[in-house]
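We treat protein structure as text, and this decision shapes the records that our systems exchange. Below, we set out a record of this kind in full and without editing:

***
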Amino acid sequence: MSKSGAKVAWTVAVLLTLAAAVIGAYYGIHLYQERSTYVQVNDAKVDGAKIAISAPQNGKLVEFTAEVGKAYKAGDVLGYVCVPQPVVGTGTAGTPGAAQSGVPEAGGAQTPAGTASGGAQSGAPQASEQAAGEALCVRVPVTMPQDGTIVLRSQEEGSLVGAGTPLAYAFNLSKLYVRALVSEADYPDVAVGSDVDVWLTAYPGTKLQGKVVEKGLYTEGMFSLLPVLPGTGETSEKLPVRIELTSVPQDVQLVPGLSATVKIARSR
């Protein structure tokens, strides 16, 4: 290679090195500014108050009309629980059914009416008894406890349910929010009222806006069913932050459980 060619190659190498250094410095400064200006959280999701529609009493679920995706008002009747009632009059002496049981009267003679009645009862089909048993129940209504949209049916008609058994679940889709878990190191830098940018994984490239409306006063580990065991290294706890969405594009459908990434403006 000639001296001129070597000089050109050296110049190109120097320029490439300088360009890489400038680009690296730019991104380094940009990253530093981002971290010093915002708290970025990848552990976030759309959430809301879950509404459980429960059986009012023990019995059989009938006429359950709750539809997934349909909105209901508080107090709307979604179905009934058929609560069995004790059968009155089984033909025992001293009960109203004794006159129809075919038991002889005090004089010892059995009346024709009693004979006919006893014969009719002894030949009654089982299906009639079952129908009568099903009719002897009180229909207790299943009502919507709050305004909301049904998202899941957990029981179907004909199911035997106990009092308090969840029959369906709902959310008020107009009151959904974003719940972010902030590390304890960044928690002091988050303040109520801070502006937030939100990106949903289901809608890449679409930015939503919101504000911090509540800071949790507990760590996630405090209410975990499985306690975190201490390890040999340092552990970082996370605290929940509630974000109210103030700007949502029309083409975005919020659904409870959608994962999200948020950037919260630091307060200090």
